[in-house]
Amino acid sequence: xxxxxxxxxxxxxxxxxxxxxxxxxxxxxxxxxxxxxxxxxxxxxxxxxxxxxxxxxxxxxxxxxxxxxxxxxxxxxxxxxxxxxxxxxxxxxxxxxxxx
Length: 100
Description:
This protein is mainly alpha-helical and 100 residues long. It has one domain (12-83). It has helices at 12-71, 74-83. The chain is rod-shaped and about 135 Å long. It starts with 11 loop residues before the first helix and ends in a 17-residue tail after the last helix.
């Protein structure tokens, strides 16, 4: 009796599964890190932009606090009141104390 040669054929569905597995492995190995680096770069750029805006707001706040200090000086307020025709009078000052 002759021996039969058995040739195993890979089914089409198994071949598709193997190809998908190889493509997925390729994507995870090579393509995914590239996208992660790009995303990290975008986040770094956004962080730097926010830090710059924070720094500019700090400078603006400092200049505004200096302006507030200058505008709220007692001598300046008295000078503006005199120019407007107001006089300084101690007769209408009422001191409120604590009740014992």
